[in-house]
Amino acid sequence: MRIITGSYKGRHFDIPRTFKARPTTDFAKENIFNVLRGYVDFDGTTALDLFAGTGSISLELVSRGCKQVISVEADRDHADFIRRCFAKLGDDRDVLVRGDVFRFLKRCRQQFDFIFADPPYTLGDLPQLPDLILGGNLLAPGGIFVLEHGKDHDFSAHQRFAEHRSYGSVNFTLFK
């Protein structure tokens, strides 16, 4: 796994083979961040990375200048890996929350300029995530929410739908 651009551009982290998480591919990550340049300037923003997995998106967000990133990950080994990655960088802008995303969303009172969610594609509650996040006052005015999902989901009828992008088997839906 590598960081594509920003202050940590080119840094690599070896993901243990035992991990169940699938990091967003470099190809998909690079393309979605190119699209996001038209929506958000990450410098000085606050971001939320839900289902953080390997921490790939959190690392990218910090590298691109976010002042704070909250990474939520339930798996102990994955959370430890994220913690070690940021320790290697010597960067304290990531706040790691080890716990259930749905419990976190119910309790969170902070607003974010950018929210990214990469749940397991087979997650039964995946279709409810946009309403849960957007209805929970978590997205700051003018903010963007990106949901990574498989090809079986279509959110184009959602009232806050902005656009959809597909890169191979990886799909992203953007909400405003």
Automatic annotation (TrEMBL):
Record keywords, A-Z? Methyltransferase, Transferase
Q: Which PROSITE patterns match?
A: N6_MTASE (PS00092)
Pfam (any one): Cons_hypoth95
- List the Gene Ontology MF annotations in alphabetical order: methyltransferase activity; nucleic acid binding
Q: Name one GO biological process term.
A: rRNA methylation
The keyword Methyltransferase belongs to this UniProt entry's keyword annotation: yes
Q: Does the keyword Kinase apply?
A: no
For this entry, the protein name equals RsmD family RNA methyltransferase
- Organism, by scientific name, is Segatella maculosa OT 289
